[in-house]
Each structure stands twice: as structure tokens, then as C-alpha cells.
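Query structure, 544 C-alpha cells:
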């Protein structure tokens, strides 16, 4: 939930409306996007060669030009003017205001009451506005200029973010086009954009100690329950209020380290992926039919290839009434936050637990493998494992044996490499399981591997390209002496690396046709991409 804008005293009539400030424009845009609803989906797919009505989807917005972060001279008390458009508060004063309003809140409520934006938002807005007004009066009495309305507004937002958001990280999370935020110490910040650009970012705390304290505050306010970040628990893994994934470490690195993966496309579908050039008509129709037919799908690819985004889009092709279980180390898919797309979701997040109990396991631990087991009792039709990285692969494959559909993601460099990766995980999880048995188990239970490619040509003046390059069907070969897995490359890498139909039909083609798929899409001609891929270095070629 996006918190409401904090309250400040009304602006004088000669002041511009504060909602026009860049500080609030990003939030307004996010709210507008969240209000959009997907179009009705028909069961039958389109036939190849026939014009399909353009889908009403939200198009990806152009990447905003990054703001300059060279600080100018200090202006009025409580603010540093970074550039003509942005107002950055004095964060030492923000921390002081936060401390004061927190103490005032604790004095008004019962002992032990947890601060909650939904419950206490109005109270906190009043407290913030009152304390900022008092601060402005104090500096006037000290002979300094009063805070302008815009400055008070920026300070109020910063205090609110410190209480309910990501603190000084929040303005970075609000910037358009950022995909990754890398922090190696409070003043060593790098921003990676969707188009491959890398930019030095502003300091996110005055000291490393303050950065750790801010992370601890965020951990206490985690949307999935309070988390510990201390000398006893030296790593922090959590989902931020906007759905971004945060991974932090301290005490094991020279300086506190934070990496934030920001998800740019959360409420998405296959139509939007097609508009972005990640799939074409043939792939769209095939993938939609496969998930609706209840096939088990593993989405694989390199880091940053768009696996999670593709998983969201694939799941959006399902009927909204399908009951889904999502099981993740940290919430990223966020299906439970999109009731307009998915009415019935059982969402679960793993918990690390605390001290070691009498059974030798951390007290309160809830592992991914245990969550998979629990999901079998929840009347779900499809089990989604956010990312398969360990023992949960066995529980997932066993769940598939019970007839449940499944979708998961995995790091791998190709469709065949995905199988090898799964074999490694199975044999490592079960010491008494051999490679042959593991491959047989995979062949019996995984229907399709969808592989995502990532091509970054930023270093040669190009852009970043994400697209599907392979879809392989796995079946049991029936060969007792050779590899028990039989591969059918339904779509494979074409001349420019993107997936093109090979002409080979999957064994489950009839199942797909029952859900509207037209086999005509499996011809190389029908599966052509409408536009050439703008590569600076052609596949197998040299720089042009």
C-alpha cells in the first residue's frame, strides 16, 4: 500500500501547488498505473496470420533522464538545494523530527503498540506537521529565514519515508528507470538503469552507523513481520513496501552492503511483454495455452533476464478464479496484491527462525520445502515457487507428481543447462538419489523449460535486450540405457538469438489445442518476429 502524503500547513495563495513537485509526481503516476485493470481474456487464442486487435495495455514509460547530484550551496535552514527541481531536506533535522514524533506517538498509545501507517496515519501526519511548524518557528526566533512551504512539504515527506518507507532510499526507489541500487557504504552508491546506464548516486546516510540504524528501522517495520539485523544476524533479506527486494549485510563486509532490486513491471501481462519486444505472437499464444492447460513450467535465465517479470505475465494469462499458491524466500511476485488479476491466492514467505531449538533447528523457521508441503493442503491448482535454489526442488517435483500444475524460476544459461542445474539440486538434497533417478524424476514432472536471454550492449553504445530464446518440452524417453530425458526444441534460437519455431510439435499439442492454441503458430514462417533486433554486434558477428 502506498502511504498517503504527509500533512503540512496549507500553502500561501502565491505558492505553486505542491502536487506539481517531482517529489510527488512519481507517486501519482504509480497510483494511476495501479488503477488500471487488465482487459477481458478469451479462452481461444488467435490464429496465425489473422490480425489481432491491439491489446489495451500500459506501455513502458521512457526512462527519465537522471537528476544531477552535485550539491549546490546550502539554502534556507533545513534544506540543501541539489538542483533547480529537487529539494533535499537536511536529514539530520529529519532524524530529529522522526525521533520527536515517535516519542509523541508512544506517549499517546498503549505500551507495545506497533506503528502502522493504515491505523495511525492521520495521527502521525498531524504530529509531523506540528513538529515541523515548531521547528520553523524556532529557527525564526534564532534569526534565520522561516521554512518555505515547499521545504516543509519535502521535510514532511522525508519524515514519513523514514517512519513508513525506505528512508533516504525512498527518493531513489521513486526514480523512473532504476533497476538496481548498489550500496557499499553510506556514500558509495551506484544506480543501474534499465537501459544499461550506470550512475553514481547520492549518499543514503551521513555515516555507516546511521545506515545500519536505518536498515534496522526498516527491518522492524517489514511488511512481512519484524526482522532482526544485528551482530547476531548479520544479513537482512526483506521486501520493501513497493515490492523491491533488499539484501543487506554488515559486520562481515568492510562497510555495510545493500543491494536493492527494483521491479519495474509488477502488474503486467503477456500483452505488455509483447509490446516491449520480449515475445512475439507465436510465443504469446503458446505460453498462454501451456499455463492454462496446467503444464508445469520452469522459467530459466541469467540474472536480470526478466524471469520474475515473465512469471507474473504468464500467471496473468490464467483465469482470475484459479487458486494459486506462491512460495518465495522474499515476496517478489506479489500476486496477493493484485486481486483484480488473481482472486484466490495463498501467498507464503520463508522465515529463517531464531535460536536453535532442542531438535537442532532454528525456532520458528519456516523453510521453502515446508511451505511447499503446506501448500498441498490449501486446495490450490497451481504452485508457484519464486526461485528454486535448494532442497525445495524435491518437494516441488513431488508435488507435481500429485497432479498439480507448477511454475518456478531458476538461474541457468540455456534450457539444457536448466536440467543439469535441477539434477544438481536434487542429488545434493537427497544423498541417496543418483543422477539417473534425478533425471527421470525431472522428465516425468517438468513439461516445459522457457529460457530468457539477456543481451547488454551498453558498452558498445547499444541498449539492453530481453527476450525468450528457447522453449523445450521434456518427456520420458523410454530408453532404459541412455538419457531418460527426451528433449523437443519447440522454439529455439534463431539468427538473431530470439526464439523461432523449429517445426517440431510437442507431444502435448492436443492438450494445448483444447485451450485455444492453433498449431499453425509452430511453423517457422508464422513465428517470425515483426521487427529486426537492433544489435550492435550481430549474433556470431562483429561490431557494425
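Result returned for the query:
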Amino acid at each position: 500500500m502506498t502511504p498517503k502524503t504527509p500533512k503540512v500547513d496549507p500553502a500561501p495563495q502565491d505558492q505553486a501547488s505542491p502536487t506539481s513537485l517531482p517529489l510527488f509526481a512519481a507517486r501519482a503516476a504509480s497510483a494511476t498505473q495501479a488503477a488500471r485493470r487488465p482487459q477481458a481474456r478469451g479462452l481461444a487464442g488467435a490464429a496465425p496470420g489473422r490480425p489481432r486487435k491491439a491489446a489495451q495495455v500500459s506501455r513502458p514509460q521512457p526512462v527519465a533522464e537522471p537528476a544531477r547530484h552535485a550539491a549546490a550551496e546550502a539554502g534556507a535552514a533545513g534544506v540543501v538545494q541539489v538542483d533547480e527541481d529537487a529539494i533535499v531536506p537536511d536529514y539530520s533535522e529529519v532524524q530529529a523530527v522522526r525521533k520527536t514524533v515517535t516519542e509523541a506517538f508512544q506517549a499517546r498509545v498503549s505500551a507495545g503498540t506497533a506503528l502502522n501507517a493504515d491505523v495511525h496515519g492521520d495521527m502521525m501526519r498531524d504530529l509531523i506537521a506540528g513538529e515541523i511548524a515548531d521547528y520553523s518557528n524556532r529557527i525564526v526566533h534564532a534569526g534565520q529565514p522561516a521554512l518555505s512551504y515547499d521545504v516543509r512539504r519535502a521535510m514532511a515527506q522525508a519524515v514519513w519515508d523514514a517512519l513508513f518507507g525506505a528512508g533516504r532510499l525512498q527518493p531513489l526507489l521513486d526514480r523512473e528507470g532504476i533497476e538496481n541500487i548498489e550500496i557499499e557504504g553510506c556514500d558509495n552508491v551506484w544506480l543501474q538503469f534499465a537501459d544499461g546506464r550506470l550512475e553514481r548516486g547520492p549518499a543514503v546516510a551521513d555515516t555507516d552507523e546511521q545506515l545500519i540504524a536505518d536498515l534496522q528501522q526498516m527491518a522492524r517495520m517489514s511488511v512481512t513481520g519484524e526482522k532482526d539485523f544485528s551482530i547476531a544476524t548479520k544479513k537482512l533479506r526483506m521486501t520493501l513496501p513497493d515490492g523491491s527486494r533488499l539484501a543487506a549485510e554488515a559486520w562481515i563486509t568492510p562497510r555495510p552492503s545493500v543491494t536493492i532490486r527494483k521491479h519495474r513491471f509488477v502488474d503486467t501481462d503477456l500483452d505488455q511483454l509483447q509490446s516491449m519486444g520480449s515475445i512475439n505472437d507465436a510465443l504469446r499464444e503458446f505460453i498462454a495455452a501451456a499455463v492454462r492447460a496446467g503444464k508445469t513450467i520452469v522459467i530459466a535465465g541469467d540474472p536480470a533476464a526478466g524471469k520474475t517479470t515473465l512469471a507474473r505475465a504468464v500467471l496473468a494469462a490464467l483465469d482470475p478464479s484459479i487458486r494459486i499458491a506462491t512460495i518465495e524466500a522474499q515476496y517478489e511476485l506479489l500476486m496477493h496484491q493484485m486481486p483484480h488479476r488473481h482472486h484466490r491466492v495463498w501467498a507464503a514467505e520463508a522465515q529463517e527462525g531464531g535460536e536453535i531449538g532442542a531438535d537442532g533447528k532454528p525456532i520458528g523457521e519456516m523453510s521453502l520445502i515446508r511451505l511447499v508441503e503446506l501448500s498441498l493442503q490449501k486446495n490450490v491448482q497451481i504452485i508457484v515457487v519464486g526461485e528454486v535454489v535448494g532442497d525445495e526442488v524435491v518437494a516441488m517435483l513431488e508435488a507435481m507428481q500429485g497432479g498439480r500444475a507448477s511454475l518456478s524460476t531458476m538461474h541457468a544459461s540455456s534450457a539444457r543447462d536448466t536440467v543439469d542445474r535441477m539434477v544438481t539440486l536434487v542429488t545434493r538434497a537427497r544423498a541417496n538419489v543418483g543422477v539417473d533417478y534425478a533425471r527421470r524424476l525431472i522428465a516425468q514432472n517438468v513439461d516445459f523449460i522457457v529460457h530468457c536471454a539477456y543481451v547488454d550492449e551498453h558498452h558498445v553504445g547499444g541498449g539492453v535486450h530481453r527476450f525468450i530464446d528457447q522453449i523445450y518440452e521434456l518427456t520420458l524417453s523410454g530408453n532404459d540405457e541412455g538419457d531418460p530425458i527426451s528433449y523437443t526444441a519447440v522454439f529455439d534460437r534463431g539468427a538473431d538469438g530470439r526464439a523461432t519455431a523449429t517445426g517440431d510439435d510437442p507431444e502435448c499439442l492436443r492438450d494445448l489445442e483444447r485451450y485455444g492454441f492453433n498449431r499453425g503458430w509452430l511453423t517457422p514462417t508464422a513465428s517470425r518476429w515483426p521487427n529486426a533486433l537492433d544489435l550492435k554486434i550481430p549474433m556470431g558477428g562483429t561490431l557494425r
